[in-house]
Structure formats: C-alpha cells, structure tokens
Design a protein that fits this description.
22% helix, elongated, eight-stranded mixed β-sheet, six-stranded antiparallel β-sheet, Chitobiase, domain 2, alpha+beta, 4 domains, Jelly Rolls
C-alpha cells in the first residue's frame, strides 16, 4: 500500500457542499461496503456528485482501467475552477448503519500527466453542526501506473449529521493534472464494534467526531491539585506563551494551583493543548488552518484544545495592537465559560475570579468568530494611579480589542508634512482664503491638485508598507479643520449643489482612489483607508471606489439615543456607502460631555448598544469608539477622562462587538452582582435612573447646558442618584473588594455633582453685564497698543469677565475699554498672563488665520441681521469676519471680508499683553446704535495655559457677557449704545 503524506485543512475552506437529492446506490449489507464503480456511468448525480462534469472535466475513460471499463477521468485542463471535487456519498437512509463505524475509503489511482495536489477527505455536515475540521491526505505516489490508496476515518456517531461523504479533490495548477480513478468504495473496518464501544477513540483526524456527550468530565484541577498538563510545541509563538501565562495566572487565582507545561511530547492523562501542538496538528486544528481571529475550544478524549487563527508575524498580544490572537481568545473563552472569570474594569479592582476547589470540563465544542473583525477605542488610557499601563493594555486585550493587519481606520495623514516639506515645498500646501499657503500649520493641509503631492503620498505609503510587512492598511486623509485648497485647480472642484457634508467629496475621494490604484501596483494586498468626514462625509457622486479602498464613516449619532430619528439618520448615511463598498468601518464619537456646559454630564445607555449595532451588522466590518479626553473640569488630555462614566457602556459594547448575540440583561445582572455584592441593588438603581434620564425621548436634538442640567439631570435627580452611591458605600464598609469598588464608583462620579452645582448655579446667579454705553473721545488714540492715551480714562469699561457659564472663577483677568469718534470705534484690550508660557503657533502679523487657537481677544458685533467678528492676539495676529446673514453657520469664508482701514497693534508687557484696535464705522455699514436700536455685542478672551500633569494646552474661555454656549451664541449678547445718540 502506497503511503500518503499527511496535511490538514478546514473542510469549510474547500468546495461548497452540493445539495443532495436522494437516489439508490449499491450496498453490500453483510460487510457494510459501498461500491461506487457502478455509479460511474451517472457521475454528477447522487451518490457520485461532481460539479465539474458539466464542463467536461470529469468524464468516463473507456480505454484505461483496472479490471473493467470505465474508470473516471479528472482533467484539470478542461476546468476553470480552483479544484475538481468528486464526492462519494452515503445515503441518509443508511446513516444509522454507519454511525460510529471505523471505515476505510479505498480505490485505485493513476496519475497520467501534469502537476498539482490530490487530496482525500471525509466530510460530514448538518444544520446543528459547526464546520468540521478534518484530516486531509495528499497523494505522493508514483506517476503513470495504477496504485491503491486508502483513507481511514470514523463516521461520527451524532444523530445531527445529515450528510456524510468522502471527497477526492484535484487541485488545478499552471500545468494541469490528468488523473484516473477506479474501484472507489467505502468499507467498514473489523474494529468497528470496538470503536462503538469506546466513544472516545479516534480513527483518522476528525476531532469533531471523537467524543460523545455521555463522556465523563475531564478533570483539570481536583481538590486544589493540578491534574491536567498544558502542552505546547517547542519554540511556541508569543501568542501561545502569553495564553499559557494568562491561563495559569487565572487558574491559580481561582484554585491556588498552576498546571505544569509540557513542551513537545504530551504526557499521559488529561492535557490542555494550546495553539500549535502535536495533537492540534494531527487533527488539523493548528492556528494556521483557522481564519484570523476565529477560535475553538474542543474536548477530544482526554485532551482539551484551545486554538484559533493567530497573526502571521509572531507579535506579542501586549505589543501587536490590532492583530489576530485567536488562540488567546480561545483561552479567554475557556476562562469565562468554565472558570467564570470576568474583567469588568482595567486593573485589580475590576477583576472577578470565582473561587473553585476543582475545575473540570465535559463534552465541549465551542467555536466562534468576532461579530466585528475590528474592535478598538481611541483615548483608551485612564489616568488612574490604581491602573498601570500594562493592566490597561491587558484589559483591552481581554475585551478582545483587535483586528487583523493593523488598523483599518482612516486618520489624518499629513500632519508631519509641514515639518518635512514646509520650507522646501510651500507649493505642496493648501492655499488659504487669506492668500497664504498653509505650509506652517501643523495639521497638514495639502493641495491635492499638485502632482508632486500625489507622488510623495504614494512614496510614503509604499515605504510604510515595506517597513511594516505585518500591516495591510495605510491611510490617506486630509488634515483636520478647513483643509480645502483655494488654488485655481482645487477651488472649482467644490460641489456647491450638494449638502455641505459632500461639498468636497468628489475632490477628496478621487484623490484617495488614485492613490489606491497606484499602491495596488506594488502592494496588491494592501488597503488604503480614508475617513468619510467633515465636508467629504457623504458619498461622492462622481467616483467609483476601488476594492482596495476602505471607508471609515465618522458618525455622531451614538450615544444620543434620545434624539429624534437617530436610527433613520444613521441608516440614511450608511446606506449609500454600503452600495459603494463592502469595506466600511465606523468611528463612533462617544463625546456627549465634550463641550463646555455639558462637561460632567453622563450618557449611560448600555441597553441601546445591541440594538444600535444590529443596524449595521453585516455591513460594517469594525468600529472604533472615541472616548472622552476632556475632564469634567475642562482639562484637555490624551487620557480616557473620567473613565468611570463610560466603563459600563464600554464593557457592554466591547463584548457585543465580539459577540452580538449575547444577552445584555444577563450581562448587566452579572456585572452589578459580581462587582458590588450586597450593594448591587443600590448601584444598579443609580445606573438605571441615569439611563432612564438619558434615554427618554425629546422633541428636538438640542444638547446644551440647559438641557443637561435643568431638564435631563436637574439638581434633585443628581442629589437622589448620588445618594444611592453614598448609601452603598456605607453598606459595604469592611467588606472588600465590594467596598473598594463602590468607593471607586462614588469617587468617579463626584464630578457629576460638581458640574451640576456649577452649571445650574451659574444660571441661577444672574448675569451682571447688560449694556455698555460708548462715549465720544475728545481725541482719537494713537493705535500703538500702549493704552496711554487720555481717551481711555473716560472710555466705557467692559470688565467682570466670567466663564461661558457665568462662573467668575478664572485664572486670567481681562478688561476691555471702548470709545469712539465720528470715524471709528476704538477698543483697548488688557489681558493678564498668570502663566509662564503663552500659546503662539500662528506666524506673527498673520491675518485671517485661526486666531482663536492662540492667545487672543475677540469682539463681536451684530446689528441689522449683519454679523461682525474681530480677533486680535500678541505679535499682531488679527482676523476680521463678516456675514450679511446673522443666521448663517460660521465658516472660514467669512474671513474673506476685510474691514477697510482697520488699524491694530499689540504690545507684550510684564505678565500681560495690551492692544488697541480701530474699526472704521464705514466698514460696518450700520446705523449708530441707540436705546431703541442697540447693537448686540460681546467681548471675549481665549487664554491658553499648561498644567504639570498634561502636555496639552488647556483652554480657558471667558466673556463680558456669558454666552452659555460658544462665543457665537448671539442670543446671549449684551447691548451697546452710543452715549448721547
């Protein structure tokens, strides 16, 4: 008998199973033998199924056979597919006679010509059976002569099996093979009875059919004593080694026992085989045979297998971020399902490990794949002394953070270009409304019409792919902010006929598409990514996206579950994109408390996530959740700010991204019970009331300080719900870890109370500044920034600045003086600088740049439905904007207007800066303000400062009249009149 070389593949990765129609076939009942020779004449029909018959690739051979004609001729030169498959089926009516039998599939084979691989395989399937992993035998016999072959296997004993067949696969190749088959048959072995009496016995390589449900439990740890041994291969992968570490660490926490680890040869007795090992290889269950991120936990006799699809570059789970770690995920599934481990929070306090004296498993066959292939979060690091960086990374991995081939999420890709190319190639950068190139702006705004920009972009992407072969994804995306170039080639490409969200869609996506086409020439497996964002958020109407381009939809619908038509708006946006591409990812902005006025307002809605994810399941491949990086006190960071606010929602969302079929109610019940013990009802009540308050539908989508603190979370609700946590803290004193967790939760939500007092109290305090009356100056000031002219002594004073929500607690004081003559309105500014640094990123003497992003003061004037804004900062950075329609949404195009004849000058002093501004009244084109028809005005300040614990600039905004929102909230402006008019 010729020997077969052994290799192993997933049955599901081969030819799709054909539908079976019942028909009679030959059977020799006494010996349980099925002869298929007599079915050759009707090949293509049951029980000898083959789709290649229709193409003439499988025919009858009348001249060359073993004993009698015909034989079967398999000719790949006549076949266009990847593999010819000839299936030898057992009729369903005869399955009962064959169940549990050890059998041999036999026949004769003659290899006539060509190259390729021939494989023998047994397959079984059924509606209730997951895709089986099976042994495949590859032919390595002689050419040109009839040679016998055989494959031994065990028919599965389960009644759920509906189809059983033995396949002959012939792989197509550049040199197509021609092979003859004859005398194919299935025979029951003499040891069949023994196999039935020993359900755990394995013949062949089908782990899926090895054990029966009645098998005795497999002991892992008994009475605190290790029984099983972990088995791994020599030179195990980083994934396997870390999986062993995670398994043993948690078993020790639960039972006090660690399992021995055998390298290479498995010892006698119960074993746990992790990843690639001799057993998993022999059964075709090694990681390389799984799709990425798929996992399996399987009992095979006295062995437990933990395996799955791992990354191909041996990356460590705590270093390779968005990669595949299927074997590790199988280990986590075992720990969760068998031991009961839960990782609710990062760090020790969030770890729950039930105590066991013994651990055992029954007949288990669990497998799965993630509901979303990519699962991630942005701003994911809590700045918490109780949580180390490693513990945080561990927690996200245990939450199944990951993907395959790096991050597919689009990101702004030109941020480093100003430093790299700003001096040498200013023409590569976007032309701004003020006529200047943006070659110094760190956000990287480039000119997509410049062919050199295209060429350099392609070079950059190819270099990144060459440097990081483990990555499949590279990103091309404009810089954040007003990226659009105003040059003669770019500006006409703006589509003014569509919604502003699609104004620049054709412009951006055409460029990205061209880049993808060029990259594909050298890196055919690479994928170029870009976000649907800003004014290129909508689908382009003149660009057909290439298949190697992935889209990241940047959506801001979640977590605003109370807003009307939230679901419909999301579906209306995702629908057109899903018609363009099947490579869609989502960037979810969980930033409900991001802006001043709503800092500290929770957005708790754990029950909404499953329903929300179900909207895009099957259309979206993955998502990243952007968490809040601004603390309740307004501090900007790169941290996951006030992480306790989000932890329940993040826990639920990450688990659902892994498996969308999970029961959220069960998840929540276990969360509160495990974490808080006797205080669970109180903490659950706290969360339930906040969830109800957040999720209650409202008539409109407004979300501001008044909705947050006067309607959704009024002071009485805040006091009541925080009372639940304080009651829980008292109840659990002396009962750790429950008390420590309650105390951590209470501390984490203290900003909820503080912000409630701040914002609701600011509204109750009343606004002081109502009107400013501007006198006539005896003599106009000299605009030199010195503030030493006599007119300032009698000028109207704008002082008593508060923050935007009427709190006087400010770091930097600001005063402005206002006077006038027949020609101009004059404004003097005095801005204290209590810190050692001043934010100055805009070039000196710049006009109409983003002045508010540096240290600066602002003056707003609204009258006769016209809007005017003036900004002035140190080093003479200046901006003036105008709109004839006060209701028009603010846009950088408003800076295309210049106040003709305006003069301004700033002076840097000791601990302050001063400025003078002259605004010609003729440039305003307004009637003089009077008591009956005043101008609406406000005076504002942008103060930036540093704090030791964060590298980011902090932003303190203040105003003469609190706008209770952003500075453009004109409904909150005060009044200006000209005294004496």
């Amino acid at each position: 008998m010729n020997k077969l070389s052994r290799s192993y593949l997933s049955a599901l990765s081969l030819l799709t199973l054909l539908l079976i129609a019942a028909s009679a076939f030959a059977q020799e009942a006494p010996g349980l033998t099925l002869q298929f020779k007599q079915n050759y004449e009707t090949v293509g029909n049951f029980p000898l199924l083959c789709s290649a018959v229709e193409e003439g690739a499988v025919t009858l051979e009348q001249e060359d056979f073993v004993e009698a004609a015909p034989s079967l001729r398999l000719d790949c030169s006549k076949f266009t597919g990847r593999v010819i498959g000839v299936g030898h089926y057992i009729h369903p009516s005869e399955h009962e006679a064959w169940r549990g039998k050890s059998v041999t599939f036999r026949g004769m084979l003659k290899w006539l010509s060509g190259t390729g691989r021939l494989q023998l395989q047994m397959r079984a399937s059924g509606e209730k059976i997951d895709g089986a992993i099976s042994t495949a035998a590859y032919w390595e016999g002689p050419r040109g002569e009839w040679t016998p072959f055989e494959l031994q296997a065990t028919i599965p004993p389960m009644s759920d099996v509906q189809h059983i067949n033995f396949m002959v696969w012939l792989e197509n190749s550049p040199d197509p093979a021609v092979v003859l088959l004859d005398q194919t048959r299935i025979e029951a072995d003499a040891t069949a009875a023994q196999a039935q009496e020993t359900p755990g016995a394995i013949s062949g390589g089908f782990a899926a059919y090895a054990a029966e449900p009645a098998e005795a439990p497999l002991p892992i740890i008994t009475d605190g004593r290790p029984v099983a041994t972990i088995v791994i291969e020599e030179n195990a992968s980083e994934t396997v080694k870390y999986a062993v570490e995670e398994l043993n660490d948690h078993l020790e926490r639960s039972t006090g026992a660690r399992l021995d680890v055998a390298v290479g040869q498995a010892p006698d007795g119960p074993t746990i085989h992790i990843g690639r090992a001799a057993l998993t290889e022999s059964l075709g269950l090694a990681p390389e045979y799984f799709s990425k991120n798929h996992w399996m936990v399987r009992r095979v006799g006295d062995a437990l297998i933990l395996t799955g699809g791992d990354n191909d570059h041996n990356l460590h789970p705590l270093r390779g971020s968005h990669e595949s770690y299927g074997t590790l995920y199988a280990t986590y599934e075992f720990l969760e399902r068998v031991v009961g481990v839960r990782w609710y929070w990062p760090g020790e306090l969030g770890l729950v490990v039930p105590q066991h004296n013994s651990i055992e498993v029954g007949d288990v066959f669990w497998r799965g794949e993630p509901s979303y292939e990519f699962r991630s979060a942005f701003y994911n690091r809590p700045n918490d002394p109780d949580i180390t960086s490693e513990e945080n990374y561990q927690w996200w991995r245990r939450m199944r953070w990951g993907g395959d081939g790096g991050s597919p999420i689009g990101m702004h890709s030109y941020n480093d270009w100003p430093e790299r190319f700003g001096d040498e190639h200013p023409e590569w950068f976007a032309l701004q409304h003020n006529g200047q190139r943006a070659n110094k702006d760190p956000r990287g705004w480039v000119c997509f019409s410049n062919p050199e920009v295209f060429d350099q972009t392609v070079r950059d992407l190819r270099a990144r792919l060459d440097e990081h072969p483990e990555r499949r994804f590279v990103t091309v995306m404009p810089g954040d902010g007003p990226f659009e170039c105003q040059c003669e080639q770019c500006k006409p490409q703006a589509d003014l006929t569509v919604d502003p969200r699609g104004k620049w869609s054709n412009y951006v996506w055409a460029f990205v598409n061209r880049v993808a086409a060029e990259v594909r020439k050298t890196h055919p497996d690479a994928v170029v990514t870009c976000c649907a964002y800003s004014q290129y958020r909508d689908v382009p109407n003149d660009v057909a996206l290439l298949p190697n381009l992935a889209v990241t939809m940047c959506t801001n619908y979640m977590p605003y579950v109370w807003q009307p038509d939230t679901k419909r708006n999301y579906l209306d946006e995702i629908g057109p994109w899903s018609q363009q591409t099947d490579s869609i990812y989502v960037w979810d902005y969980w930033l409900a408390r991001r802006h001043a006025g709503v800092h500290g307002a929770p957005s708790i809605c754990p029950r909404a996530h499953k329903e929300w994810f179900a909207l895009d399941a099957g259309r979206v491949k993955g998502r990243v959740i952007e968490l809040e990086n601004i603390y309740a006190d307004g501090t900007v960071s790169h941290d996951w700010a006030n992480w306790m606010y989000d932890i329940l929602d993040v826990y639920v969302a990450m688990r659902l991204m892994w498996d969308l079929d999970q029961d959220v109610e069960q998840m929540l019940d276990q969360y509160f019970t495990d974490l808080y013990g006797p205080a669970a009802p109180l903490v659950e009540k706290f969360y339930a009331e906040l969830e109800t308050a957040w999720s209650r539908p409202r008539a409109d989508s407004t979300w501001d300080w008044s909705v947050a603190w006067l309607e959704m979370y009024p002071p009485e609700l805040v006091a009541r719900t925080m009372g639940y946590l304080r009651e829980a803290e008292v109840l659990t004193r002396g009962q750790d870890p429950w008390h420590a967790r309650v105390e951590k939760t209470l501390t984490g939500f203290l900003p909820f109370e503080e912000c409630s007092r701040r914002y609701s109290g600011g509204a109750a305090a009343g606004v002081q500044n109502e009107e400013i009356a501007v006198p006539v100056a005896a003599a106009a000031p000299t605009v030199d920034g010195q503030l030493d002219d006599a007119c300032w002594q009698s000028a109207a004073v704008a002082e008593g600045f508060v923050d935007r929500f009427n709190s006087p607690d400010l770091l930097a004081a600001t005063t402005m003086l206002v006077t006038r003559d027949a020609d101009c309105l004059y404004v003097a500014m005095r801005a204290q600088l209590p810190g050692d640094e001043i934010k100055e990123t805009i070039p000196a003497d710049s006009r109409d740049r983003h002045v508010w992003e540096d240290e600066s003061c602002e003056v707003f004037i609204v009258a006769e439905d016209r809007f005017y804004q003036f900004l002035l900062g140190p080093r003479n950075i200046f901006g003036d904007a105008h709109s004839p329609d006060v209701n028009e949404t603010f846009d950088m195009t408003m800076f295309g207007w210049n106040a003709e004849g305006a003069e301004y000058q700033t002076v840097m002093g000791d601990g302050e800066w001063t400025a003078e501004l002259a605004i010609p009244l003729t440039s305003l084109e307004l009637a003089a303000p009077t008591e009956d028809a005043p101008w609406r005005v406000n005076f504002c300040r942008n103060y930036y400062y540093r704090v030791p614990e964060h590298a980011e600039w902090q932003w303190e905004t203040s105003a003469w009249r609190p706008p209770f929102g952003n500075f453009h909230n004109i409904e909150r402006f005060g009044a200006m009149i000209f005294a004496g008019e």
